[in-house]
Amino acid sequence: MPSASKENIGVYCNPAHDLWVKESGPSVEEVKSGQALKEGEVTIAIKSTGICGSDIHFWRHGRIGPMVVEHDHILGHESAGEIIATHPSVKNLKVGDRVAVEPSQICGQCEPCLTGHYNGCLEMRFMSTPPVDGLLRRYVNHSAVWCHKIGDMSYEDGAMLEPLSVSLAGMARAKIALGDPILICGAGPIGLMTLLCCSAAGAEPIVITDIDQNRLDVAKEICPRVKTYKVQPGVPMEEAGAAISKLAGGALTTALECSGVESSIAAAIYSVKFGGKVFVIGVGKPDINIPFMRLSTQEIDLQFQYRYANTWPRAIRLVQSGVIDMKRLVTHRYSLENAVQAFETSAASAKTGAIKVLIQSEV
Predict the structure, then answer these.
(1) How many angstroms separate the Cα of 223 from the Cα of each of 78, 193, 195, 196, 204?
(2) Sheet of 73-74: strands edge to edge?
(3) Neighbour tally for 355: CB within 10 Å
(4) pLDDT value of residue 4
(5) What is the pTM of this model?
(6) What is the pLDDT of residue 2?
(7) First to last CA, the chain
(8) Which residues of the chain have pLDDT under 70?
(9) Can you give the pLDDT at residue 363?
(10) Beta-bridge partners for 100
(11) pLDDT at 362
(12) CA-CA distances (angstroms) from residue 330 to 36, 195, 218, 291?
């Protein structure tokens, strides 16, 4: 049976934008004894964790909007691993189970929780969002209810269920349907994941944009029928929107904006038809300018997303059945001990060609 043999370490950042690996909790002694487990909790030996753009932001910028790094802080929220200990109260998981970790910790009592929209929990503690430490550790204690069994799925795919959940939540709320003409703005990990989902859902045509030709080439590789548009800096948003519409063969119904960049959101607004929708999945600056009158006179809906809810079971089914294959998105792999190099590779994606960088750990 699995057990803890190595000391627990984690990946930290701080307000000074330092990044380092050091000892973390729970300690290996606590893991072995199980004394640190609370009711309803399990200990997971984390095997694979993806680096998210938010992790890079917390490291390099110290904040995302009102979420501010004020102390030494552990990053990471895209993880999968193996159960190595359970509290006696836990009945649905056992030692040896392979799980993907949903990083939410909710109150279960507020209106969003009680109506099924727990991503809006008023007391949300989301792992890796300050001040709540994240999953980039060798061992983590977490509520069993948020540990989803993945069977014989690889730990890499298990870690990728988190960004897949982001895309699935966007697809559901934007109400993408078979045959819808779709624009995806941004060919980063979320944009490419969204491309996989739109392709599986039968959207047609699909246009994807980015400033990086390498990422557009990857988009074409994973979805040969996608039309790619390379963003040229300085091109007016009206001109970009018209060029995108022309490439699609006409104005688009829905734009899924996955970058959060002001100019990209504006171009998306100019690419959709009267009565269309721009759905923003990406995270951007606290304040941005938008072409208000274009939205108003064209009755374009501008809609937003915050994380996800109730997506993990669906994501697991899609991956296990082969409907969604995310493997091509993983470009780099590092050990937990070399996490700083992993972050540097991810942050320099324009030079390194990184899309999704995974950090792996042995117990």
Answers:
(1) 24, 11, 8, 7, 12
(2) 19-23, 9-13, 73-74
(3) 22
(4) 81
(5) 0.96
(6) 60
(7) 12
(8) 1-3, 363
(9) 64
(10) 80, 148
(11) 81
(12) 34, 15, 11, 36
For residue 337, CA distances in Å to 136, 258, 268 come to 11, 31, 41
How distant, in Å, are the alpha carbons of 86, 102, 259, 309 from that of 190? 33, 17, 8, 17
Contact 343, 55 (CB under 8 A): yes
Side chain identity at 14, as an amino acid letter? N
State the virtual CA torsion across 137, 141, 143, 146 in degrees, nearest 10.
Answer: 20
